Every structure is written in C-alpha cells, then in structure tokens.
Structure of histidine kinase:
Amino acid sequence: MRKIKFSKYSHEYKFGLLSLLIFLILSTLCVLTYYWTLQDQKEDKLKQLEVLGSLTYRDFEKIVHHNINSLEDLAGRIMESNGAFAKYLQSDTERIIRQNQGIKFIEFINESGIITFINPLEPNRKALNYDIKSHFRYSDWIAVSRDTLTNITPWITLTQSGKAFLVDVPIYYDEKFKGTISAGMDFKPEFDNLSSKQNLYSILIKDEKGNIFYSYNNPSPEIFESAQIFSKTLSPLSNNISGSWKFEFMFDSKDELKATSLQNKILALGIFLSFTIGLLAYFFLMAKQQYIRYKLINRKLNTLNEDLRKERIRAEDASRAKTQFLSNMSHEIRTPLSAILSISEILEGKELSSSEKEFLKLMQNSSKTLLNLVNNILHIDKIEAGKMELSRELFNPFLTLKKIVEIYAPTATMKGIELITNFDSVKNPKNVMGDLSRTEQIFTNLINNATKFTEKGKIEILYEEISLEGKLKLIFIVTDTGIGIEPSKMPQLFERFTQLDFGITKKHQGSGLGLAITKTLTEMMGGTLEVKSKLGEGSTFTVSLQFPIAEHQEEIIKTRSYRDLSYLKVLVVDDNVLNQKILVKILSKNNIEPDVSKDGDDALLKCASKHYDLIFMDVHMPGKDGFEVVKHLRKMDNTAVILGFSADVTKEAIERGIKAGMNDYLTKPIEQEALFATLNKYFS
C-alpha cells in the first residue's frame, strides 16, 4: 500500500514540475517579446518625435522671421525714401497686420522716445503719445537703436494691456536717427494653427529670461527624460543680439512611451495562456492516471470557470462604459443647450419685432423639448431600474400639446404633409397637477414619429378632455398615412434600442428609444398606449392619461422679479468664455457684477486675496477641476456659498460635488427662475 501511494505522489510531482517548466518557458517568451516590442516602439516614437519636432521648429522659426522681416521691410522703405514713404504708414501697417497674425500693433517712436503713431488705434489709445523715457526699457531701446540693429525684447507686459514681444527697427536717413518702427508681437495664433495638427504632442517655448510665452497641449517637460524631448534654441533675429528662445517639443503624456492597453492585454493574455497550457499539460498527464469520469468533470469545471470569468469581465466593462457614456453625453449635449437656452432668455428682455418674438419662442420651446428628451435618454438607467420619479406641478395639457404641434408644424409643411387638428373644438381646457416634462415627452415622441415616418398624405392630431370626479381624463390620438407596421413585427415595437426594419434605420435615423420610453412613461403615469397599424397605409397611436384637476384654473403666467443683490461679492469660475458671459449677463439683472476666473488656480488666487459671498464653480476645467478647487477652499476655511454649475448631471457627479463641499449643484442649462430661486434660498 505504501509503495502504491509513493508512486502516485511521485507522478504528481513530476507532472507538476513539467507543467511549471512549460509555463515558465512560454511566459518568459511572452515577456521577452513584450519587452522587445516596447523597445522598438519606443525607438520609433522617439524618431518620430525628432522628425516632427524638427519640422515644427522650422515652421515656428519661419513664422517669427516672417513677422519681423515684414516690419524691417516697412522700415527699409521709409529709409530708402528719406522719410517720404511715412505718409503711407497707416495703409501699409494695416496691410502688414492683416498679413501677419502675430503682429498685434505697429507704432512709431520718434528720436525723443515718444510714441507718435500706433495702429490699430482704439485698443491701444492709452499708449499714444506715451514717453518711453520713463519706461525701464528706454536705455536698451536707445542703445540698440544707435547701433542700427533690430532689437526684440523679452516677453513683457504692455502699457495698454496684455503681454507681447516688442520689436524695434531703427530708422536712419539724412545721417540722423529718426526713431524706430516698433511692433508688439504675439505669435500664439499662428503657432496654434500649426500646433493643432499635432494633437498627440505638446510644445513649450521660453524667451531668453525663461519666461513661458507659448505652450500647447499642457506640456510637462519635468516628467520626461532629456532624450525624450526635442529641444532646440530658436533665434528670433538673425543678428542674435537679443539672445535665443528655448523650443521644446514632447509627447502630451508619458503614456505615449508606455505600452498600450492592447499590448498589456496581449501580455496578460499570453501569460494567462502560458499558465493555462501548463495547467492543461498537468491535467492531461494526471488524466492518464485517473479514470475517464474525473477527466470529464474537470474539463466541465474549467469551461464553466472560464465562461464565468468572461461574463464577469463583460458585465464590468459594460457597466463602466455605460457610466462613462452617460457622463460624457450629459456634459457634451447639455453644454450647447445651456448656451442656446440662456441666450434666448437674455433676448426676451430685448425689444424685438413680433415675428422675431415668435421665432424666439419657437427656439425656446424646441430647445426645452430637446432638453427634456435628452434628460430622459441620459436617465434611461433610472427608467430601467424603476427609479424614475414623477414630479407634481401645475400645467395645462392642451396648451402644452399646442406648443409642441407648433414646433413640428413647419417640418410637416416642408414635406407637403397636411396637418389636421381638432383644437378649435376644445373649449375651456383644464389646468391639472402632474408631471409636465413626462407629458411633454409623450406628446413629442408620438408627433415626432408621425412626422418622421410620413412622406405624403396627412397627420391628424385629436385631443379630448373628460372630467371625472375631480380628475381629468385626456385622450390624445395621432394618426398618420406613413409606412405602417407589419403585424408580425408589432411585438417588437416597444422594445428599447430596436427599429423594425434595417432599411428604415438607414433612412430614418433614431436611437430606437422613443416608443419604448413613451410606453414606459405612460404606464408610470397610470395611463395606456394603444396602436393600430397597417403596412403601407399608416398608424394610429392612442394615449389615455388621467390627472387631478387643479384648484386654480386661471391662466398660467410665469413672472420674474429681480432683486437688488449688488452687495454680494461674487466669483464665476468657468473655462468656457461663452458660459461666463451668459452667467454674468443673467446675474446683472440682480445688479450683481461678478469677478471671473478661467481656471482653478486663478480662482484660488482670487479667493486668497478677496472674500467672496458666492462662488459659481464649473466642474470640468483644465488643470484643477471644480471638485479639487472646492476641497482646497474648504480646507482654507472659506465660508462662501459655493454652487456647482455644470452640464454633467449624472448622480455620481452631483454626489461628488456635495461631498467636496458645494452647498448646491446647479445643472446646465439652468432657467433664470431656478437660478434666482436658489439665490433667494441662500440670500433671502
């Protein structure tokens, strides 16, 4: 018995060593192949970096020299004509500025150091007749000018505003120094045109004093080794008297030199396969010593484990992708909608013609309807989980339907479709208490479908109200002469992300969510949705809903009141200039004149030097995001009311904002009434 047992464990030991050896050999080959591939890839990318860096450097150098040469040519024409060409200074400088984006202005400084001419004048009027003898650069200006050499200053702050390089070209004729043709130059616009073609790379340029005057794509040279940065000196002047600039060209992230996600996955897969092969070899050899049933059971278990692992990974990937998709779509779609709605609300206060007011109203209705649709699509996960909550507000279903029909009427007219309604027969429509947004979406989805799938004929929209013991039952019917639906495909009609015909999908674009959401919302509100259709003849959708009748039946009129909140010290933090302007314009109705910051670092500096009562904090910003900035402020014991202000409406973003220290979280686009209500809440 002992001899048999020893023999059994001896075989297991040998098989285990053989399997381990197979795994080590295969995994070593995988690791070596992975390492060699990374080395080759890194060398190729560094070569590519050097080539692209050299090309970009030459292009930047040409831009700088071209701008300066244009100025020198102008000075040359004045000197060659003994000053006669100066009478064309206005027209010639305008031409040069048009042709050279890097030249912000051109001025003439006479021999006494006084600026006697500047173009363009209006933004630079402050500098006209300025005596530079009181300026720290006068000594350098007069010294270099007497040497008859073109001079360029370091990156300096201008008298009027902003920063630029000042280029001075001395003018001599009649053997006397007459002054200089000088220009303020900022090459950023032209550099950006070139840099935009290299989105995988970052660029950093410093002047001779180490001042950064140009950067693209958030360069971080400190994270790279010197061999991983293409660095070269750039001489703005051929005489090289003003020193040289430092040009650095690098990847936008060190991850570019690392293994890609696919390569890491392949390595992991290779090691996993090596392990699996070694393990299979062990089981195969052991199976020779075991009976067949054990081998079959073992294979089934391996297969099941592999399937479970794949399903788990697939489920986790799907969950992450869905969350990321909702977050990105929330931000990207709601940002332009915010601008449209906010601008339209600002325009309401302007004096407009009746037709302009009509178009403005249509734009507002369309934008709000679209926003409601987007909100529901972005929150489809709530619908699927049964967590969608219905609101309760006062509204008029009939007037809501009329508004939506007005939006789609132009589309029907353009397609030559007759739009028929029974609205004239509806007398004294009732106000109800219910979810206005969901009702709007039900109306919108069905009218949109009828308009989209009908190419000729007519669309008939019928509306009826029936009062029943304090409740209002409304019946909404949409009939079209469109493509119709095959009887065999009726069961698929209300499935999510499903359209009934591939050809239809190609011709009529859509997400396949419209009818699914409509049916779900109708049932959530205790209503019914029925459909009758015949292929090639059209369809009829009938919706029945019931709402409590409101106590007040007077006309629903929304009024706005603006309070004087000029005493508040307010800071708006947003990297989007358009969003800044819109919010500043809205706040001005409460006599608020806020300060503005374009990023988190600037906001922290302003808060360190000034107390603010109220801070509007954007979430998505370059550098420090809104969450980080709020955490810093709360650590500094900042007691301001901080309102998050973002197009990201996901639950995760809102919870993260409140956890970071925000008092409230407003989502873009925000209606003025909602904003002012929030201000009243905190500053009553």
About this structure: The first strand starts at residue 103 and ends at 110. Confidence is low (pLDDT under 50) at residues 1-6, 500-511.
